[in-house]
Amino acid sequence: MALNARTTVVQGRLSYAHLAKPHAPNEQAEPKYSVSVLIPKTDPAIQAIQAAIQAALQDGVNRGIWSSMPDPSAFRYPPLRDGDAPTDSGESRGQEYAGHHFISAKNKKPVFLRDQQNAEIPVMLADRELYSGCYANVALEFYAYSNSGNKGVTASLLGVQKVKDGEPLGEAGPSAEDLFGAPAAAPAAQTGGFSQPQAQQQAAAPNLGF
Predict the structure, then answer these.
(1) CATH superfamily of 7-164
(2) For residue 152, is pLDDT > 50?
(3) What Cα–Cα distance (Å) separates residue 173 from each residue in 2, 35, 63, 187?
(4) Rg for the chain (alpha carbons), in Å?
């Protein structure tokens, strides 16, 4: 697709990453590929994000969604949200969100996934490479919408490129050692009987596109 004034690339920390397969937050919702990206409030890139949002607002005016330019901060769910603000239930979003803005983006279709060298990340490795807590470049396109009387601006997810690892968000699952205990020591090699074969050269790893 051609880039326009409503598209931008944001670098930040991933949260609620569902990039390997579409995810639905509840039974009534349509499953989508989705992620939230946390951006420090002091990041100069905030200006580029706000410019892309303004372009989406102007596009909404041009398409007749609004008669005049609205204030995006007045939307129930602004496209650029405050991580220090509480959730709808009044709870804190957690220390990871403190001092950050965040953007939630979704797409019905699969999005491109890239590693640090811009090589494709296979879907089978997406959850391992692009997990909640790692840092990534996130390509977004903001657009104005009008749906059943609800109007606003939201972000469409275009793609994600990993930048670096980070502390995973959320509680990690148990390790193999937690479940099965430490592995037993290998038995000692026999000295009598048939001679032992020479160790074979380790096979090359399969080409996974990196």
Answers:
(1) Nucleic acid-binding proteins (2.40.50.140)
(2) yes
(3) 41, 20, 48, 30
(4) 23
